[in-house]
Amino acid sequence: MTTITPELLTEIRSKFAHVEACPFTGPRVFFENAGGALTLNSVVETSARFAAIPDNQGRDNPASAALGEIIAKAREDAATFFNAPGGKVFVGESGTELLFRLIADACLGTPEGIVLGSTVEHPASRSACARWAEVAGKPHVLVAHDDTTGVVTPEVYAEAVTEDTRVATILHTSPVTGMGMDVAGIAKAIRAKAPEALIIVDGIQHACHGGIDIASYDIDGYVVSPYKVFSRHGYGVAWASDRLSALQHDALVGGPQGNWELGTRDTGAYATFSDVVEYFEWLGSRVSDATDPRARIEAAGRAIHDHEAALTNAMLHGTGNLPGLAEMEGVSIVGGTDNPAREGLVSFYAAGRASPELVSALSEHGIRTHTRKADHYSGNILTPLGQEDCVRVSLAHYNTEAEVAAFLSAVKRILG
């Protein structure tokens, strides 16, 4: 196994648009990846190419047939990326919209019983469960995450799950704390008491960090937002198991059985997800000797994890002669300092300093970060901590230790 070397990192960065500069403000360090990762140059090129094609799927002409083949390949590529045996891969308006659709069908298509989730979840799944559990007449039960670590464990789910749990949701990684959950362990805990429950996972924040393995999870739905995994805005990608797809859902009367998609799809959206999968395969070929596409994707995920762990460690504990956030007086780290669940993200707040002011000051130093407030997006994490806001610093594998150093230098100057 090869790590991401400085030489490889330079090559990686060359594959992304606007790595070192914002098209509106000029040079900057991009630490706002949880809000939307950088876009692959190949995705930009593919988007432009397909935007110009006038033909649609399902027509009797060679162009239409070619579009159908591109969509079929993209579905196969996504299934390989997810390691998803069986089931269906399809695109929708966004990751949030797809979570709402999967959860709605699961709530409406199952017998009377419980809808189970957790307090750590993003509102994309929590709001969907709240709405559709009520429509279906099912209680919506939330298990509590640990405020200190930012994690909800299989053991906590095991205590809450009952035999009549019909639908369960899991957040793979939090976009506020950056902490990843044990999806396989949680699913196993749910199945131990409710083997027929439909389990749906929000993988939106996790996807760009690699390591999706649906075959090992024993779940029924998994959703990602491609703009957070090196593609573009305007679509989401979902995988649904055969039994979830067999439930009644919005569809055209007389249309294909089990079809999830409504109306003509954007072939370019599918094609750009193939670009993402191709990139992971390329990276895997550079950090391993693997030749199988799935093995390369797995190798890429391990290399991404290790590189991002090194960067977050430097951010927390310092690099060179610069102190890390954990060593700065008055600075608190959301989720704790040395948390093994952390995935490429550090959220912090400083005593006596409003987080929006810190984000603005960092921007003036050429560092792009983001404020998370105790609102409908992040209140579930921040309110129990008695905190109105925090600074979210989110990175990806194309970020460098030099960028971390620039960030720490800026924070040190700002905090005095």
TrEMBL record:
Record keywords: Pyridoxal phosphate
Spans traversing the lipid bilayer: none
Entry keyword Signal: no
Pfam families hit by this protein: Aminotran_5
Domain Aminotransferase class V: 29-407
InterPro entries linked to this entry: Aminotrans_V_dom, PyrdxlP-dep_Trfase, PyrdxlP-dep_Trfase_major, PyrdxlP-dep_Trfase_small
Protein name: NifS-related protein
